Amino acid sequence: MSKIEEALPRSPVIQMKFMRAILRYLLMILLAFLLFGIILLISGKDPIQSYRDIFISTFGNSRGFSEVIVGMIPMLLTAMAVALPSRVGLINVGGEGQLYIGAAFATFGALTFSHLPAWLLIPIMMLLGMLGGALWAFLPGYFKSIGLVNETITTLLMNSVAPKIIGFLIFGFWHSPMDTVKTDNFVAAARLPAFFGTRIHLGLVFGLVLLVAFWLFMKYTRWGLEMYAIWNNPQAARRNGIPVKKYLIIAMCVGGAIAGLAGMSQVSGFYGVLLLNFSMSLGFMGFMICWLSGGDPLGIVVMSFVVSVIFTGGNLLQLTRGLPFAVINILLAFTLFVVLASPTIFKGKKS
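RE: above sequence
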């Protein structure tokens, strides 16, 4: 902490750090958009008009803005599913598979207990979704804790298995009489409530509450301090009596549970049905957002919002500018490169 910050009261220092973080993210986003504009010019498109289309479609009316919020809900949750295990040095690439399994467990609850009222059915589906994601994350966490297999490999490979399990369940047991690639529509009691006449659903509250709880947990609890010690030096933490193996397993399972909750919120709040291949790489998107934000809760909110704007507006560019969907991936790649280079670009030399 600088001498100026030491001389200031704690509240202004916090505000200063908050504004500095916001400014840093804004500068990174602007630089990424500038680089993307060069690509648009090379391809013969007008970047100013393209950005105008993006911002008008997302900020120009309440419906467009609400769709941006809807799109960022699963990204908030899957990014946090990566951020929490990372605090003990784990790299959870398995958010996609954990999301699928959580959705499957939640769907089981929706189809099996459809006679229950919403105040009881929704919590059951939430618990089942979190249980499914946690169970799917348990094996990578356990194997890592005993030094058998690296969690990056196991979580990545298990991502390809989870959608096939979903396909087996839908085709074999749950498919609708009218369509073999989805289940029956969920009853009204199994749907997450939406707000303000939009498609923004209760999953947004889940994400924001968990992010605040995550920040408080890491900053103000003994367990957060011990997790930091494990991340910094696991051997020293083990010598000081911290149960490293237990933390590795629990952190991975909690991350999986959060990804499972994201799957539950998608099938219950967004679709109202379990579809084959419904995710559209939301788990991988959460991994990227966590890296873009450095696992910081505020950064996760900002980058989830930005990525959702890119996806929502990018879909319109396909119609208005004749651009392929691949340009969205190019813009996201530029954003990632800028963030990875940000320690050099935005931080001066240490005195």
